[in-house]
Amino acid sequence: MIWVIFALALVLMLLFGVLLFANRFVNQSGVPRLNRKIEFNKDDRILYVVAHPDDEVLMSGTLSLLKRRYGLPVKALYLTHGEDGPTFDLVPKSGLKARRTQELGRVKEILALDEMVVCEYPDRYLVNQNFDAVCETVRKEAGSFHPTYVFTFDENIGMYGHTDHVTAGKAAVQVARKIESVKGVFQMTLPSGMLSLALKMSKTFRERYDAEHGLPQPNVAANIYRWRKIRFAVTRAHETQTAVMRELQPYYDKLPRWLYYAIFDREYFFYRERNEL
What gap in Å lies between CA 267 and CA 256, rounded to an integer? Predict the structure, then answer.
């Protein structure tokens, strides 16, 4: 019996060691935790500005933390319906807009969002729209909500080179500069370990990521392990984008949630205070 116990203990130690190594490989040490860098209060209000349904996935754990731990109101602003994306053979292309809007309804429930607005700008062609008009749309929706913090994409590469993402990030930052209530902007990014893994495992990153105009270095991270079920549920809610989700989060639906999120247990941001915008 003692040898069985010893063997089990050894297996557990090896598993813990592997998890610890993998966690340290993909994460970046020295990045301050969200709750240590920012002192949120009951009057804070969160607005996120993205281009497409499913863009919120990579910050859904953080949004859950802010909503459920701090009780902060959260408003979502999507600039397109994502009607030019893949369908995963669930609907004809002509029905994708309605289906993705339906999927967003489920996301609103999962994240317990207070408000959600989906605009009519054309998917994949956001960069070709009048930028001042896009900014005015963001300004109108932000102004009625009075956000104190804005979450969006970076302005250089939009995570991996999507021009719609870049446009959304630029518009969000430009508007945030002019809204007195805004204290700072969080822009989604990745640490070097996650980026290295993405470039090896994701065809999207390999083909579209431009290192010359790459992601900003993260300066804040949110631990999302407690909110892993919510992030997983948000990811799965975008059923028509299943192939995209598998591409951007390899093996997220193959490994047990406790194991996957024991490794990928943080979401990273480049945070800029108002005077840095």
Answer: 19
